[in-house]
Amino acid sequence: MAESDEKTKSKMGRKCPECGGTVFTEDKNRGETVCAKCGLVLKEDFIDRGQEWRAFDAEQASKRARSGAPLTFTKHDKGLTTEIGKGLGELYKVPGKKRAQYYRLKKWHKRLIESKDRNLSFALSELQRIISFLNLPKSVHEKVGRYYEEAVDKGLVRGRSIESVIAALVYAVSRQFDTPRTLDEIAEASGLEKRDIGRTYRYISRQLGIRILPADPKNYVPRFCSMLNLSDKVQAGAIEILRKAKKLQITSGKGPTGVAAAAIYISCVLNGEKRTQREVASVVNVTEVTIRNRYKELVEKLGLEKDVEEKIKED
Ligand SMILES: [Zn+2]
Predict the structure, then answer these.
(1) What are phi and psi of 34, to 5 degrees?
(2) Which of 208, 236, 270 is where one domain is finished?
(3) Which domain holds residue 235?
(4) How does pLDDT run across 258-313, given as a tens digit for each residue?
(5) pLDDT class for 6, splitting at 50, 70, 90?
(6) Measured distance CA(167)–CA(283) in Å, rounded
(7) Domain holding 98: CATH number?
(8) Ligand 1 (single-atom ion) residues, CB below 5 Å
(9) Of 79, 209, 229, 315, which one has the greatest count of Cβ atoms within 10 A?
(10) How many structural domains does the chain have?
(11) Are residues 191 and 54 in the same domain?
(12) One domain for residues 21 and 90
């Protein structure tokens, strides 16, 4: 992609739903507007393409899920050596697909040893740490591992900190797999500035052809509900509110965490599980003003005013 096809500009009154940035890069070739700060692709002309991309990835993810757990790609030191050390006799007891994985792993392992690549080993332990800190699934862990290896092969990590590349990939992949983590959370887990992660993300994603779109608010609901100690009923209610809101396009372009927070809050009220807007705001890490605004929009446009008022009166 030629740099000359890019144009950076601010759009009056427009804010990135992810980081609040107000400067955007327009990529004429791809027909995209991208936040210059965090790299989020704002849906523009290519909504369809974006969905295809997501569907493709979801399909891959489910395929992977069906084919069973892969060999321990991500545990590269002890785990992997143990697996590999089993020898050929052991290996032929496993199905062909896994055998192919074994050879891939073995090749990879050999290369690792040969190159004495301490960076890779450091990167993978950093990855392990962040994955467990953020409680992300194994599928995300492995995909980041693969992307990281690709980044190393293409020489993309040179001149950048390993931590920032790992953080940027975790940010992107967690979203691809519908288990999004916010830029704030990634920053906390990695100890890096949001801006650094965003910058690295922008570079790496361009080189590897990764795109991230705004997260679907419903993908935040289960996690936020469990952080707030809420029942399954509240969770289901919040997801239902979001489903209706999406259908009516009430929330497009709004920060997904704020929308999720407001839906959870409304569901709390309707189900009689009291949480204050402040409690929800602090767990989700958005301002109370944001929750209040999203709350008003949702309640009004979904026609929930009466229900909400009655519930509040009951208390
Ligand atoms: Zn942004």
Answers:
(1) -120, 135
(2) 208
(3) 217-314
(4) 999 999 999 999 999 989 999 999 999 999 999 999 999 999 999 999 999 888 88
(5) low
(6) 21
(7) 1.10.472.10
(8) 16, 18-19, 21, 35, 37-38, 40
(9) 79
(10) 3
(11) yes
(12) no
